[in-house]
Amino acid sequence: MKRRIPIAVFFVVGQFVAFFLDGSITQLLSGTLFKYPNTMVPCLTMMWLILAAFFGNSKKLHLTAWAAIVGFIFDMYYTGILGVYVFIFPLVVYICQSLYQMLPPSFLSGFLVYFLGITVLMSLGFIANAFIGQAPASASQFLVNTLAPTLALNLVFLAVSYFPVEALYRTHR
């Protein structure tokens, strides 16, 4: 008889992989992703959390707690400014999960909700960095040169990973 691996194990391993893929993709493709004046920021860590909110049982997976923990580690490892993503990650996961539950479950609904989630994530990150004087651009430059390219990149990542992740969660219910 085959033993089933709990979905929580897949979630944690996937979160770990997504976290380090964020940095690895950024490092490997930095010449392309950060070509002046545009900036494309991969948000695979957030994508994994949002897809878990779409397809998983958030109470079983403790998504809010995981989002805060991952946000804290993300702050320490990638930004060096503690506290920004600790609050933004759980908020974005909550917003995306709430919106997705109101819509009929489909790829287009997930695409729209993820679009809004990345917009909220990047915008709140920009506002927080502007508040402490770390934002290097104006709001209009942020919208055109950072948010738009970041959305394009991350929506491609979502299009590629949506159905495989959905199948993973469906087979481990």
TrEMBL record:
Positions of transmembrane segments: 7-30, 36-55, 67-95, 107-130, 142-163
GO terms under biological process: regulation of cell shape
Membrane topology: Multi-pass membrane protein
Listed Pfam families: MreD (PF04093)
Subcellular location: Cell membrane
UniProt entry keywords in alphabetical sequence: Cell membrane, Cell shape, Membrane, Transmembrane, Transmembrane helix
Main subcellular location: membrane
One GO CC term on file: plasma membrane
Signal sequence interval, chain numbering: none
Family: Belongs to the MreD family.
Record-given protein name: Rod shape-determining protein MreD
